Amino acid sequence: QSISEAVGIRANFEILAGDFSKSSRAFATIRNGQRYIVYDRKEFSWGTGKASWEDLWIMGHEIGHHVASHTFTDEYSSHEQELEADRFGGFAMFKLGAPLSAALAVYTEDHPASPTHPGSAQRRAAINEGWLHGEAMKAAEGNGVCIKGWASSELDVDGSICRIAQTCNGSQSLRLTCQDYDGAWRWIN
User: Which of 20, 28, 37, 144 is the most exposed place for a label (fewest CB within 10 A)?
Assistant: First the structure.
């Protein structure tokens, strides 16, 4: 909830705990039209009453998969999707008040790329980019400037071409917009 509030989105997904047999900590998925984030209960510190920065970064990353509609489409390679979710996770960490070092601490060891995930150096760069984007936005807001624009590439949502837009309308700063049959963009509630 704190991540969704910090980045200005509605939490339209459920969080579920599981016991994973593989070395995955969490994943985003859609089943029967419902969005989920499933996490491995033995990998998270929720039971202590306070989430660690690492826990929050992982949740931010998984929320990023939903925000970017990766669970709807296979338009990108998995590496591109992971890096986009990493950037969102870095942005969310900034919005939550995490220092850049805490955001980057998830990938302190170097790992090569795999068929599904980029190497840790690329992932650190993406997290850094997202965190710095949050910092730049805050600086611009402090000067009374709002930066409008596209926050995602084009997405196919139920046959419609859609994008996530950065707006300057108070608390709802990220909104989904889709093209009508005549090419005009319309807001989706």
Answer: 144
